[in-house]
Design goal:
Blueprint: H1 2-8, E1 22-25, H2 29-32, E2 40-43, H3 45-53, H4 58-66, H5 69-73, E3 79-80, E4 87-92, E5 95-100, E6 108-115, E7 118-125, E8 131-138, E9 144-149, E10 152-155, E11 161-165, E12 168-174, E13 177-185, E14 189-199, E15 202-206, E16 211-213, E17 218-220, E18 224-226, E19 230-234
Parallel strand pairs: 4-14, 5-18, 6-19
Antiparallel strand pairs: 1-2, 3-10, 4-5, 6-7, 7-8, 8-9, 9-10, 11-12, 12-13, 13-14, 14-15, 15-16, 16-17
Length: 239
């Protein structure tokens, strides 16, 4: 039921599109005394509080529920991730990629995974010492499914299921089929726990115990990459 509600609301608050949300009964639960898909919608914490206090009417909530913000946009409203500091660690499968930065002219950074000159995951620090995370996740048709650009998270609203609960973001293709599971650990760590990374016909399968490059049948497990410019480079490398 919750998945159907998330899908109908395009995985965000129906008013503002934020991907961090709470389930809200359109008709007060005390009156209907049951949980039904039709009577549930998604509201961010701020809009949920307004609806609870009566600052948003039931008619206004119903109107937003009929036309969710993310359905109108086609993608989620941006959500800012709060990363900062002079170092960053990316845990991918059982492997760890980390860098310690010094803010220099032009900044610095590192790339844990790159495919065909597309930086799947990259971290940079600018000349002012601000830390930025970038992530590009593609679906099986090689179309962008989820992006993080300079700490700003967006995803498509037509996925089967995207759930952002606490620090954990889970993308599912169907029931019990997890496409990607990411844990955000501000201020300086991200964990990609399991899933698939696809780009231009190259596939990487991630498990908690290892990373498996499908095309070359390569397994990388329990490895640590510290202070490198690029951790894994696959395919074309014109740079």
């Amino acid at each position: 039921m919750q998945r159907k509600v998330r899908q109908r609301c395009a995985f965000g608050c129906v008013f503002c599109g934020q991907p961090l949300y709470e389930y809200h009964h359109i008709q007060d639960y005390a009156k209907v005394l049951e949980h039904t898909e039709e009577n549930l919608t998604l509201l961010c914490a701020s809009h949920h509080e307004e609806a609870t206090k009566g600052l948003l009417t039931r008619q206004q909530v119903e109107g937003a529920n009929r036309s969710p913000k993310n359905k109108t946009l086609g993608v989620s409203s941006p959500y800012s991730l709060h990363f900062s500091g002079p170092q960053f660690t990316a845990e991918i499968g059982s492997n760890e990629y980390s860098g310690v930065f010094a803010a220099e002219s032009g900044g610095s950074g590192f790339i844990p995974i790159s495919i065909d000159d597309v930086d799947i995951l990259s971290i940079r620090i600018d000349e002012d010492g601000q830390l930025f995370l970038n992530l590009n996740i593609f679906d099986e048709c090689n179309l962008p499914l989820l992006t993080i650009i300079e700490n700003s998270l967006d995803f498509r609203g037509d996925a089967w299921d995207i759930e952002f609960k606490g620090r954990l973001l889970t993308i599912r293709q169907k029931l019990r089929d997890i496409f990607l599971e990411i844990e955000f650990c501000p201020p300086d760590r991200i964990r990609i726990l399991r899933g698939r990374i696809l780009c231009n016909g190259i596939e990487i399968m991630l498990r908690r115990t290892h990373t498996f490059v499908v095309n070359s049948e390569t397994i990388i497990a329990n490895a640590a990459f510290h202070g490198v410019a690029i951790g894994i480079q696959l395919g074309r490398n014109l740079r």
